From TrEMBL:
GO terms for molecular function: heme binding; iron ion binding; monooxygenase activity; oxidoreductase activity, acting on paired donors, with incorporation or reduction of molecular oxygen. Pfam families: p450. It comes from the Eukaryota. The lineage of its organism: Eukaryota, Fungi, Dikarya, Basidiomycota, Agaricomycotina. Belongs to the cytochrome P450 family. Keywords: Iron, Membrane, Metal-binding, Oxidoreductase, Transmembrane, Transmembrane helix. This is Cytochrome P450. It comes from Coprinellus micaceus (Glistening ink-cap mushroom). Pathway: Secondary metabolite biosynthesis. The chain crosses the membrane at residues 16-37.
Amino acid sequence: MNFIEIDSLLLLENKLSLSLACVLGLAIPWAVAITLYRLYLHPLSAFPGPALAGATGWYETYYEVYKRGKMVEKLEALHKRYGPVVRMGPNKLHFSDVAAYDAIYTNRDFRKTSQFYDVFLASEASFGTVDNKFAKARRDLLRSFFSRKGVLKLENVIQDTIDRLIISLANKVGSPKPLDLHRVFSCITMEVISAYCFAKHYDAINYPDYAYPVALALHMSNRMGCVAQHFPIVLDALFSLPDWLVRFVSPDALAFPDFRRTLDDHIEKILKDPTTLEQAEHDTIFHHMLNPKSGQEVPSEKSLKQEAAVLIAAGTETTANACAHAVFHVLTNPHVKERLKKELVEAWPDVEAPISLERLEKLPYLSAVAHEALRFSHGVTAVLPRAVPEATEIAGVVVPKGTIVHMGATFVHRNADIFPDPLTFRPERWIEKGSSDLGELPSSVLQGSEGVPRRQVCDQRSLHMPRFVLTPTPDSLAWAEIFLILGNVFRKVDLEIVDTTLQDLSDFEAYVLPIQQIPVKACVKRVEG
């Protein structure tokens, strides 16, 4: 190397150093200026909260991604310190006042935010769209299929699937290997929603150890979805990888995408030849969506595919979580178990004779157990964001235009003013006379549910299911599943909880849906009928 080449390299090095210095010289003052603006001049600068949260969105990313779903837990601590309104990001507020729940989630002018919802890849489905008008039109289109009348018409589809579960559990009697109840109930709820919506059966119930890959992949996608919300490039990178590489790294990772492709193929065949619907065992969601009432539009192929995937996702996890919580808490509280068993035996003395959904729904204590299980399982644990289009008053606080507002469901479920001793599983709170405290719940959380016994439920209202699920899968179907599953399991199956504590259920990662670190496990002791 001669002197000319050395001089050229030195000159290049100096230019690079100068360029880097210029970049840093501009970036650092810019970052300082942005931070100072957010802390002292931003419209939310007067709201209480950690300075770091007000300065950068990385605060939320740290608790969501690095600490693995612990933002909700952190928010509980922040509200204890700062009060009912906390600044959780540069342009985000979180509320703990129950009065804020209705104001945020029933205001049709508030819009969903694309940063949160785009990751679900369902922009043309009822859940994933950020267009409120479109979402309402889609809910209207789906409503008749999931109506009370529609559910009762297809009650036998749900019961037949549950009967197969009972037979499967009977084959596990005496086995020392405990069952993961979340897996068990995920298999049954996925089978129910598939059979109900698509007249399709995937035999998930008979999969070894109930480890149905599609359900497992769906469950774990909660964590990946959270990462993708903070780092969208991750989702793009995953979709750019060849399938063979993804399968090599994680054999089950493609289970849900493969399942979606199966659904997509089914939809394409229907669109190509609508007469194939005549071969279905019963009416499906496609009968309703492809033959809408006057004034309603027929969804596009893309929209049909997205809605089908969303219905599967929404109809599986939340109900499964509620059932797993119900089994754990009933079996670990002897007085609850005894009272529920007594009620079921009196109402259903001969298990060989079928019992109707309507009969089960009239059992007050079973209803109370279902409500309390829903409260403990939380349904959707993520703090779902809404954008405020104009300056608005929420729970007595004026929120500036453009602010992103949230309120997590756990802040209602664990509110001691509404639910005294909120961490205690006590179904009686739902049927005690004079329990007027429950009447203070917002209408979007408390609302009359069809078929639920009301004469003893406080203020004649009960937990509103749509707030516990991802999509507008109506409460009629969700309630039907819960009553039929819990009624059949507690009447026919003798389970014993093993290797699971209350702390295990309390320790969860709060993504869109909760992920328990240690699942509820049980052994099957006896099956009757």
